[in-house]
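We were asked to recover a plausible sequence for a given structure. The inputs and outputs are reproduced exactly as logged, with field labels preserved.

PROBLEM: sequence recovery
POSITIONS: 334
GIVEN STRUCTURE:
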């Protein structure tokens, strides 16, 4: 039975045989690859005519060789559609420009481009004029912290860190076991077991002032499953609690709610006046509160009551900032 061999793999095989100066021919290549001599001949013609392989036949050796010893086929076979996808990926990944991995990605894209034959090109200048990507505001992460945390992930080592909340000058010292790292809205978070708190906590990498491997190894518990742990999350925060969330959206906001999935377990119910009620189960309310506030008067929390009360208090504080509007005074202080 003949082996199934994709064409590109066969081309790489032929390329290696020629570069090794074994002077292969159609018969020898066909026998070794278990295909017909006509198939090999078509491959050789494709290499010569489409990939510009500097190939010649040596009669004395009864086989092919490269007239340019430095030539070799690219390891990747990409067409214009593939290159377009690479272009889009490079633009999308600019959102990770705040991380040390971004220069490496740029280098990777450059290597892909350099490995392609001259005949396969893409006009990136034209594409730059046609596509734009608005980058999410992102935090700045120390390269030393980034490298250390990801080394800890690879080697399952505990990390001694200095960490603090936004605005704090005196950072606290902790030792953590990083189980998982997640990117969310321009920030990277380490989901780690905090040895001082004896619990799994979330640490923003941008808020870690210094990180150092301890040399002590840890084992991720068998019952830790990040996807399961964060199943009912809304945003990056979660807890052991469960909240049944129900939010009313006005008819004006309803079309925008319908067109997205805001939570994997969401349910939408339309009312007679075209308003809708969005319901789901969540384990934390902080980011839900921020999200509901962003809709202003187009949304109202129906449950839980604690969330509705928190939003009411937040709105009262906001109204306090605008209660006594004095344009003259505002102009002077602004």
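RECOVERED SEQUENCE:
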């Amino acid at each position: 039975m003949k082996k199934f061999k994709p064409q590109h793999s066969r081309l790489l095989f032929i390329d290696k045989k020629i570069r090794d100066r074994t002077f292969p021919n159609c018969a020898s290549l066909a026998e070794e690859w278990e295909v017909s001599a006509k198939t090999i001949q078509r491959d050789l013609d494709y290499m010569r005519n489409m990939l510009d392989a500097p190939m010649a036949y040596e009669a004395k050796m009864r086989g092919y060789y490269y007239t340019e010893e430095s030539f070799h086929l690219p390891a990747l076979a990409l067409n214009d559609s593939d290159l377009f996808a690479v272009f889009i990926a490079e633009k999308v990944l600019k959102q990770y420009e705040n991380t040390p991995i971004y220069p490496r990605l740029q280098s990777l894209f450059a290597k892909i481009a350099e490995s392609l034959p001259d005949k396969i090109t893409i006009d990136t200048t034209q594409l730059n004029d046609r596509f734009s990507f608005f980058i999410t505001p992102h935090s700045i992460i120390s390269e030393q912290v980034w490298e250390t945390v990801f080394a800890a992930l690879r080697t399952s080592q505990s990390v001694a860190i200095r960490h603090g909340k936004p605005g704090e000058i005196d950072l606290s010292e902790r030792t953590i076991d990083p189980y998982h790292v997640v990117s969310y809205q321009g920030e990277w978070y380490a989901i780690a077991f905090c040895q001082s708190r004896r619990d799994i906590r979330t640490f923003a990498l941008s808020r870690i002032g210094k990180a150092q491997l301890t040399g002590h190894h840890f084992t991720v518990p068998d019952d830790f499953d990040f996807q399961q742990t964060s199943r009912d999350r809304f945003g990056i925060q979660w807890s052991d609690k469960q909240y049944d969330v129900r939010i009313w959206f006005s008819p004006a906001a309803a079309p925008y709610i319908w067109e997205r999935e805001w939570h994997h377990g969401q349910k939408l119910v339309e009312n007679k006046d075209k308003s809708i009620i969005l319901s789901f189960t969540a384990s934390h309310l902080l980011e839900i509160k921020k999200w509901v506030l962003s809709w202003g008067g187009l949304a109202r929390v129906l449950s839980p009551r604690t969330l509705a009360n928190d939003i009411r208090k937040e709105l009262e504080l906001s109204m306090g900032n605008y209660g006594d509007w004095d344009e003259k005074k505002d102009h002077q202080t602004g």
